[in-house]
């Protein structure tokens, strides 16, 4: 995902409402998220769908790594040799 450009990617809700199609096109073209503010505070983020999906994929991989690390720390790892024994004989 591309980084937010704070001078270009933060818009108040009133501005977003009045130019919604423009901002949808901008997010799709730049691949950068758009931060929408309400009453001067960040309220929502608009992301392009493929950027959102890529972000979710990365989170899932990181969660798998965290789980694996926890299992290893508890002594639940399986050696490569044992994995080959278990799954190598399948046809």
Question: What would your notes on this structure say?
Answer:
- By secondary structure, this protein is an alpha+beta fold.
- The chain folds into two domains: 1-47, YefM-like domain (YefM-like fold, 3-Layer(aba) Sandwich); 49-91.
- 55% of the residues lie in helices and 15% in strands.
- The chain has four helices and three strands.
- A three-stranded mixed beta sheet has the order 1-2-3.
- Strand 2 (34-38) and strand 3 form a beta hairpin.
- It starts with 9 loop residues before the first strand and ends with a helix.
Q: Note the run of SSEs as H and E.
A: EHHEEHH
Poorly predicted regions are none
Shape: elongated
CATH class of the largest domain: Alpha Beta
Radius of gyration: 22 Å
DSSP summary: helix tally: 4
Which fold does the CATH topology of the largest domain refer to? YefM-like fold
By DSSP, the count of extended strands is 3
Summarize the amount of helix as a percent range.
Answer: 40-55%
What do we call the CATH homologous superfamily of the largest domain? Answer: YefM-like domain
């Amino acid at each position: 995902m591309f980084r937010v450009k704070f001078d270009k990617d933060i818009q108040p809700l009133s501005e977003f409402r009045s130019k919604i199609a423009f901002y949808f096109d901008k997010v799709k073209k730049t691949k950068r998220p758009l931060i929408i503010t309400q009453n001067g505070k960040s309220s929502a983020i608009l992301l392009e769908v493929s950027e959102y999906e890529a972000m979710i994929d990365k989170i899932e991989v990181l969660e798998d790594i965290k789980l694996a690390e926890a299992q290893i720390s508890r002594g639940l790892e399986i050696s490569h040799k044992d994995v080959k024994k278990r799954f190598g004989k399948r046809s």
